[in-house]
Every structure is written in structure tokens, then in C-alpha cells.
Amino acid sequence: MLEVGVYTALLWSAVACYGLGFVLVLPSVRRRRPRLSPWSLGALGLGLLLHAAALAVNTAQTGRLQLTDVRSALSLFVFTVTAAFFLVYLRYPITSLGIFMLPFVFILGLISAFHPPPALAAGSFRGGWLLVHIASMMLGYTGLFLTSVGAIMYLIQESELKSKKPRAFYYRLPSLEVCDELYYRSLVFGLVFLSLGILTGVVWASRTWSGPWQLDPKIVASLVTWILYLTLFSTRLSGAGRRRRAAYLAIFGFAAVMVTFLGISFVSSQHGFFPKLGSNP
Amino acid sequence: MNLVLAGMNHRTAPVEVRERMHVGESCLTQALKDLALHDGILEGMIVSTCNRVEVVANADDKDDAATAIRQFLSGYHRCDLRDYESYFYWHRQQDAVRHLFRVASSLDSMILGEPQILGQMKQAFAAARAAGTLNGTLQEVIHHALAVGRRVRRETALGTAAVSVPYAAVELAKKIFGHLTGKTIFVIGAGKMSELATKHLISSGAAAILVANRTHQRAVELAQAFRGTAIQFDQILQYLDQADIIISSTGAPHFIITKEWAGRMIAARRNRPMFFVDIGVPRDIDPLINEMDNAFVYDIDDLQGVVDANIKQREREAAWAEQIVEQEVQRLMRHLASREVAPTIMALEEKLNRIREGEMERFQGRLSSLNPQQREAVEALTRGILNKILHGPITELKSGAGSPEHGALVQVIRKVFRVGD
């Protein structure tokens, strides 16, 4: 189908731009420039536009927002993370932000582009609640990813400051305060949307599925993630003793999110992104 | 363009000699006018700071500006310049341009990347403009030098990292706290470095200052100077938890701030970070405090380590800066050269074209039997011959810009083709 070809082509171009943008970030980081080069930002911006176009084409082609297969979901996630990168960079122009976020964007983008298109449009996956659910979960995951990024940057910078010997990262990372702020704000953002996502998911599932959907692995994993991040809510990175624990939790937590997102998609029967439908009403 | 520069800096001359050659700010205008009076000097500028004296002039092509500059210096400073000959360096043409660019970019400074030199050159530029001794090519060169200085500052990290202990303390504070607005500083013990560091912190936004000193009177004086509060020395520990940054330099024989007390304070502050700067020898602050969460302790050696690392970084950045300077030198020299040859090229083209038209005119009668197409062909033929003849000279004129033989080449071409003058 011609439409499928256009979508795939746009997606590949977007991913290529992301890769190019990442490569162009490296000299700025190496040279400790205060800002990212306009070339890298341009490449990323172009990638974002192409990606938006790809999503638009996909929607137009299937008549509705295509979100329920692995490729589309991953693609949307990459989109939100890249958009988040721009928003974060606008607020905190940290050159090394690219090092932490863009490889992730590029690799996930590659996975989504490589992934085969869905065999058929899943019939049971319709509805406004579903849309809100998926969008919220995407934003939630994006926020939690940023939380991990903030936590990692904080840990690295803190260790360099404690060692009293400025090494590679000392010059390239922002202040502890900024890392902490990024961590905390994205935590709040991520939790809000994760909560919204789980809520709308529960509403939608109770209307759509029969059977013990509550025990679906993906849903369980989401709840665990949610509780994990909730415990971090009351701490800042500079809090007593819990600080390091909080940082490690945030990083581990995001690994868990990725497992939830990718791994369980292939396992869960009802909540999978494979059009393998469970018992349908 | 005939640029000549004579100068001395902290490397080539000791301070007594630099003092002798110094041109004070109030005397600058007169000195510049003096310089311009000498034979052949078209433009001149003098930069005289505590670390360097530079005299640069643009002279008539035929004149030796070096002699004029020597005469000016001997006359102005009322001395025999031969006594000081060994302290001066001389640069001409492209080298002079390169030197000016490097100076403006603080690559020739005692401390790489220092910010003052650009402002000092700007002042010298303004003074020379006001005295009327900058109105041609030299003005352009200096204008570019200032632009290059700004570009280096913008595109490299040459001037950013701190290379003195007080500045290093401020830099570290910013790495911990982000912005310093509203932060409280506690200064324990008065000392040159503490005061400097405090001043820098205040100019970066720190708000409240607490001062304590063994002699309370001194603490009161300092507190007044900083618009802060003086604390009695024996009450230091009570107020310590209010401070985000503590600068201590009493050199007392024992620790003023122990690990136990620090732990209590950090807890009282609900784990907001604390930065301890210990300049005292022997140390005032227990270094083991650094192992606690949210506490950072830097003693004088640690700060010096940061300074050393930053200096290395500046040297790395200097390599990039030199590249930028070289690029800009080449660009300017090409531009100036093409400007100089433009009139020659134009005159050359004009002259040969006139010859061509003249000959066409002369042969009009013999060509009258030709039809318009053939006449057009003859016109094209003559133009073609002309262009091919001109191609060689014009290419040579345009390339080779900035090289010392280029000026001679221009003269030769003008002579050979009987153009101009």
C-alpha cells in the first residue's frame, strides 16, 4: 500500500535525523561549549517534524490514531521524548543533556522503525478513554525517563564534586541544584500523567474486557512502577540518606518501565500490542 | 597598507622597563598626535597597560615606519632607544595583524583568557579615533581585532573557568547551589582571600553575610563593608546552620567545626547542601565532613587543584582560539589584498579595453565590408584575446594576497602594463 510506504519512509527519515542530531551533539559536548550547535538542534527539529508527519499520515491512513501496535506505540513514545528534550533544553540549556537522552531516542526509534507494521488493525481497541489512557501513559513514561536522567546527572556531578578533582563531567554537567530540579519536576509530571493513565486504563478495561484483566502482567507492572515512583515523591535528591537510594530507585525504576513497556507487550495476551485478542465481549 | 608594530609585554620586559615605556591615559592623546607627526605615518594607535606597551602604525608604502616609531619612542620618553632595543618585539603586515588579534583574544596575556585586555584595547581604539589618528586601514584592522576578541570569547571556553582560588570557590558554589541569590555566607576570620571570595559571591547574588573574627572589632568593620551582620566569635556554632556557604580562614590550631557539629547542622537544615571553604592553615574544618551527605569541604589544596585543572582546560581552549585567530587573519588579509588590487585590476581592464576599442575604431574602414554578424565575430574575437591576456595578471593579483612579495608584484604589473600612477 502506498500509504504504508509513506509512513515508513517518513519514520525512517525521522530516525535518521535523530541519529544525525545525536552525532552532531558530540563535538559540542567534547568541546565543552555552553550551547548545543544549531546544526544538531536543526537536525533534531527536522526529525521531530518528519516524525509528526509520519504520525499524521498513519492516522489519516487508518482513519484513527494508531496507537495499539508495538511500532506505533514506540514511535509515539520516541516522539514525546524528543519533544520533551526540546522543552527541557529550552528551560535548562545543558549541552550534555543530549548525551543522556538522544541515544535512547535513537535506539528506540530504530527499534520502532525496524518493527514490522501490524498485520491487522486491532478491532477491540477503540474509544476515547483508550486514547487518553495511552497518551497519558506516554507522557507519564516520558516524565519518569527524565527523572532518571536528572538522577543520573545528579549522581555523577555529586561524585565529581566530592572527589574534588574536576574530571570530564564536572565541566559539562549543570549544578546539583539544576539536576535536582529536573529530577523533581519531571517526577511530579510523570506521576500525574501515570496516575491519569492508570485511572483511564482501569475505566476503559472495565468497560471493554471481561475476565480477570486486573491480573494482566502489564497492568500489574504499571501499578508497581506507579507505587515505586510515588515513594520517591516525598524526597528530593538532597534529602537525608534517602537521596542516594532515591536516585538509584529512579534509575532502576525506569529500567522497570522499559521492561513493562517493551517486554510485556510481547507477553501479555490481552494487553499486548500484538493483535492477539483475548476474550472479547 | 604598511603595518608596523613595536611592543613589549610581561614576557619580554620586566616591570621597570615597562614602566619606563608606559604612556599614561592622560598623555595618550598628545602621544598619538606626536606619533602621527612623524614622516610617513598615516595612522597610529598606542596600547599601554600594566603588562604591555604596543605602538602600531600604518605608514606610506614607501616609508620605513619602524624608523619613525623608533624616533617617536625616543623623543616621547626622552631616552636612547638602543638601551631598550632588546626588550621590544617588532611585527609587520600579516604578523602585526596576527599579533593584534591574539592580544585582543587574551592569548598573549599573562593569564590566558583574562577579560580586561579587550576593554583596554577598546579604550585605546577610542582614544586614537578621538585624536584623529585612526581613519583608514589600521582602523579597520583594530576594529576586526576587537571583533575577533569577542568571537573567541563567545566560541571558546577560554575565559570561563576560574583560575584563582577565590574565583574557584565561587565557581564551586555555583556548581552546588546553581544560582546564589538569597544564599547566606558565613565568613569566619578575616583575610585577603576570604574577602575576595566573599566579594565575588556577593556580586553573584549572595544575600546575607555573617562575619565572625577573633577580634570582634574587625568583624564589625567587615560586616559593615559587606552590609552584613557581625557575630561574636564564641557564638559561631549557634549561627552556623543559617549559612549555605562557610568560608573559614582563622588558622586556629584545632578544628573550629567538627564532624559531630556539622552533622547536627546539616540535619537542622533539613539536608539542604552546605559548602565549606577552608582556607586556614592549619585547617579549621574537619575534612571528614566531606564524607557526609550534602556537605562539601574544600581546603586550600583542593581549591588549588581545581585552579590547576581549569588552567589546563584554558590551555586546551587556547588551541581552538589560535585556530580561530588564524582563520580570521587569513580572511582579513585576503579581503584587504583584494581591495588593494581592485583599483589595479580595474585600471588594467580599462586600459586594455581602451586599446581594443581604439584599434577597432582604426580598422573600421577596412572592416566595413563585413556584415553585422562578421563584425560581431571580430568584436568577440578581440574581447576574447583581451580576456585571455588579462587572465594571467588578474589571477596573480587576486591570489598571493597578504604575502610580502605581493606588494612588489602589484607594482611590477602596474609598471609592465603602464597602468596608473
Describe this structure as you would to a colleague.
The complex is a heterodimer of chains A (about 280) and B (about 425). Chain A is an all-alpha fold and about 280 residues long. In chain A, about 70% of the residues lie in helices and about 0% in strands. Chain A is flat, with a radius of gyration of 20 Å. The relative contact order of chain A is 0.11. In chain B, the strands form 2 sheets. In chain B, strands 7-6-5-8-9-10 form a 6-stranded parallel β-sheet. Chain B has a 4-stranded antiparallel β-sheet with strand order 2-3-1-4, with helices on both faces. The longest helix of chain B has about 60 residues, at about 300-360. Classes of the chains: A mainly alpha (about 280), B alpha/beta (about 425). Chains A and B meet through helix 5 and helix 6 of A and helix 7 and helix 12 of B.
Annotate the secondary structure layout.
The complex is a heterodimer of chains A (281) and B (421).
Chain A: H1 2-30, H2 38-62, H3 70-91, H4 97-114, H5 128-163, H6 176-208, H7 217-233, H8 242-263
Helix pairs in contact in A: 1-2, 1-4, 2-3, 3-4, 3-5, 5-6, 5-8, 6-7, 7-8
Chain B: E1 3-9, H1 15-21, H2 28-37, E2 41-48, E3 52-59, H3 65-77, E4 89-92, H4 93-104, H5 116-131, H6 137-155, H7 165-177, E5 184-188, H8 192-203, E6 208-212, H9 216-226, E7 229-231, H10 236-239, E8 245-248, H11 259-268, E9 274-278, E10 295-299, H12 300-362, H13 364-367, H14 372-398, H15 404-416
Parallel strand pairs in B: 5-6, 5-8, 6-7, 8-9, 9-10
Antiparallel strand pairs in B: 1-3, 1-4, 2-3
